[in-house]
Amino acid sequence: MRGLPEDPFIRRLVQQARSSQVSRRSLLATGTAGAAALALAACSTGGKAAPTAAADKSASDKTLAWDNWAAYIDEDDAGNYPTLLAFEKESGIKVTYGVNVDDNNTYYGKIKDQLALGQDTGADLACLTDWMVSRLIRLGYVQEFDLDKIPNSKNLLTSLQNPDFDPGRKKSLPWQGGFAGIAWNKEKVPNGLKSVSDLWDSSLKGRVGVLSEMRDTIGLIMLEQGVDISSDWKTDKFMDAIDVFQKQIDDGQIRNVKGNAYLEDLKSEDTLAAICWSGDITTLNAEAGDKWEFVIPEAGGTIWNDNFIVPIGSPRKSNAEELMNYYYQPEVAAEVAAWVNYITPVEGAQAAMEKIAPELVDNQLIFPNDETLATAHIFRTLTGAEESELGAAFQAILLGS
Amino acid sequence: MAFGAFAGNAVAVDQAPRRRSKVALLLLLPGILYLVLFFLVPLVSLVITSLQAPSEFGDIGEYQTAFRWENYTTAITQYGAQILRSFVYALAATVFALLFSYPLAYFIGVKARRWPLLQNLALVLVIAPFFISFLLRTLAWKSLLSDESFVVTSLKALSLLGPDAHLTGTPAAVIFGLTYNFIPFMTLPLYASLERLDTRYLEAGGDLYAGPFTTFRKITVPLSMPGIVSGVLLTFIPAAGDYINASREFLGGSGTTMIGNVIESNFLIQLNYPAAASMSIILMAVILVLVGVYVRRSGTEDLL
User: Fold this and answer.
1) pLDDT tens, A46-57?
2) CA-to-CA distance for A66 and A124, rounded, in angstroms?
3) Rounded to an integer, what distance in angstroms lies between the CA atom of residue A393 and that of residue A238?
4) B66 within a domain of the structure (yes/no)
5) What's the number of domains chain B is made of?
6) Which CATH architecture group holds A63-177+305-366?
7) A197-248 pLDDT per residue, tens
8) Which of A129, A247, A393, B205 has the smallest CB count inside 10 Å?
9) Is A178-303+380-398 CATH 3.80.30.20?
């Protein structure tokens, strides 16, 4: 018998087909019923019971699929991932690393139907941003870790141990974190920028880019307006920031609102200043000449983390735990951080960095000290209703009128 | 369904064989199954989704079956500007594509007949862009039209563009992108009908003292009408629903959003499936009506 295909969905279909020999007549009947069921599937009601975790087959299945963002792990010139290769050798687990996350929303759109049914999404481990992880936990779409199997999780920075969406880190572990702040082109804007309001200066009209990540763009504007975004603010504070955002779009001050692609605009100089993510600017400077500078605005910036989660339908949780444990060794974390230039969540990585790249030890974007951390704020968790309402208000501006 | 409207005048001319053949039914089966599975079922599902209401105490993206007609009125009032803009852009792109393609198709199909090699080469050049992904070509235009690009700096040097003006993110860039991307779809059907144009009619027109313009208007255009109609349909319909050119990541901006971008945002980001579904149905309905009127007006029902 031939091996089963890799794709979990097709695999299930093949298994089902093999398990029952069917006559042509019954096949036709099934087809018709299937068509009707497909149409009715749209009628399915909300408020279903949360799915249950898949049985763990890690002992017999030494593989692991990991979905992550682009340029988010150490890479050598040949396109290999050195730390991951070392893990494969050490553990005997074959890892499929996929650069499959481009945006939290679109990734969620791809996997949510399988999650709701408790099926395998094809990934055993994915790195998603705090607010999306919070949604997944709220909906019961992720598996609880066996922390005994991740002894190195004790190396997690104290400040990250008890987020409101996952106290005690039972279902998520940070991979890397970063700041959202402002950056500018040093050649075209020699005087630099200090605050978000500087972006609204008339000399930059039509040359400002902002992020399509709502919590970063609106978060920075709210901070500029003196709102503590971690506190339990009310909707009207959010709407005040939305008004500023709307005005700058209408006036043509903001050129464009983008996801990862904002880097292209900075490179092509369509935008000369932008609200952006910390690590990207370091990478951009290395790639296209040392032209840009990043700073956390005076009124404060946002800080976020991308976290490991194990989707509810993954049958390889133990393998995933082994990988997380590996990356929570300070030496390995330092190696990754030296390449990606984002904040590492692992205690001791700073000491380990001494040996790898001593010049990065005092880099505030990788190892922020208390002073830097005091200027960075976490956007508070939104309820499901708030996600719908505030998200719609933000998207309405992006869609214009 | 709605295409039946076009067949209104078509009398049943062909006498179909009366005998019921099992073979014919069997041969039809794959086609019918295909239509049911990939057209009928999704359409029914789309209609059902478009009438859903948010479930009570539900999380983001959770809806339940209902008959919420307000979804349609909300969509129209909230996104009326984008709906209108889609059709204005699509119409502009279709007109520009026709203006560029007609001379091109005329050259390839009529003037180049004497040189078959040139004719074939020109046809290959029309199709050549298809060898590169549509997305890549649009992205290439994005950097060609960026602020520090040769195009923009030259236009500014010539004072054709103001000192603060730019191209990307403007309606002009989006219409340009739509026109560029759909030109082959306009050129090929035009070529197909012009290639069969009998030039003796043109000579006859000249013999009867018709000027070149009159000959063109009275002979060439009517004879190439099938090409014009199919070219316009092949350009207008996909252009109205296009969401790549107008996307913020490509040539558009927040002020150039088309209906496709609204559907994308509602479906993928806001997880507002009823709004996305009702917008899709509105788009379909408007296109059907517009196309129906267009085909009636141009008097080419029998072409379909």
Assistant:
1) 445 778 888 899
2) 6
3) 10
4) no
5) 1
6) 3-Layer(aba) Sandwich (3.40)
7) 999 999 999 899 999 899 999 999 999 999 999 999 999 999 999 999 999 9
8) A247
9) no
Of B59, B166, B267, the CB nearest to A139: B59
Helices (H), A49-185: 82-91, 104-117, 130-138
Q: Are A124 and A314 in contact (CB under 8 A)?
A: yes
**CATH number assigned to the domain comprising residue B237:** 1.10.3720.10
Q: How many CB atoms lie within 10 A of CB A33?
A: 10
Contact B99, B143 (CB under 8 A): no
**Which of chain B's residues have a Cβ under 8 Å away from the Cβ of A399?**
79, 82, 254, 257, 261-262, 265
Residue B199 touches chain A, beta carbons under 8 Å: no
Both structure tokens of A279 = 């690590």
Helices (H), ranges, B110-198 = 116-127, 134-144, 150-157, 171-194
B40 inside domain: no
As given in the structure block, the two tokens for residue A32 are 């018709």
Q: How far apart are CA A101 and CA A104, in angstroms?
A: 7
Residue with tokens 């133990």: A318
Spatial CA neighbour of A366 closest among A279, A287, A283:
A279
SS3 state of residue A211: strand
Query: Which of the 8 DSSP states describes residue A191?
Result: T
Q: DSSP class of residue B219? A: I
- The CB density around residue A271, as the number of other CB atoms within 10 Å, is 28
Alpha-carbon distance of A183 to A274, in angstroms, equals 5
Q: How far is CA A169 from CA A56, A67, A307, A382, B47, in A?
A: 20, 20, 10, 19, 42
Lowest mean pLDDT among A12-21, A323-332, A341-350: A12-21
Distance CA B259, CA B267 (A): 12
Confidence of residue B295 (pLDDT cuts 50, 70, 90): confident
Question: What pLDDT does residue A13 have?
Answer: 62
Classified as helix, coil or strand, A369 is coil
Asked whether the beta carbons of B258 and B243 are under 8 A apart, the reply is: yes
- Name the burial class of residue A329, with classes exposed (0-12), middle (13-18) and buried (19+) by CB atoms within 10 angstroms of its CB: middle
Q: Write down the pLDDT at residue A164.
A: 87
**A173-185 and A301-309 strand pairing:** antiparallel
CA pair distance A382, A238, nearest whole angstrom: 12
Query: In whole angstroms, what is the distance from residue B293 CA to residue A273 CA?
Result: 49
CA atoms of B102 and A176, how far apart (whole Å): 56
What is the extent of the structural domain holding B216?
2-7+79-303
Strands B63-64 and B53-54, sheet pairing: antiparallel
Chain A: which residues have CB within 8 Å of chain B?
A: 31, 35, 38-39, 41-43, 45-47, 105-106, 109, 112, 135, 138-139, 205-207, 212, 249, 254-259, 261, 264, 268-270, 384, 387-388, 391-392, 395-401
Per residue in B190-221, is it b (16+ CB within 10 Å) or e — as a string? Answer: bbbbbbebeeeebeebeeeebeeeebeeebbe
In 3-state terms, what secondary structure has residue B266?
A: helix
The residue among A142, A178, A162 whose CA lies nearest residue A281 is A178
- Which residues of chain A form CATH 3.40.190.10? 63-177+305-366, 178-303+380-398
Q: Does B80 touch chain A (CB under 8 A)?
A: no
| CB-side neighbour CA atoms (13 Å) of A320 | 31
Alpha helices in A233-329 (DSSP H): 235-250, 262-268, 278-288, 317-327
Identity of residue A23: S
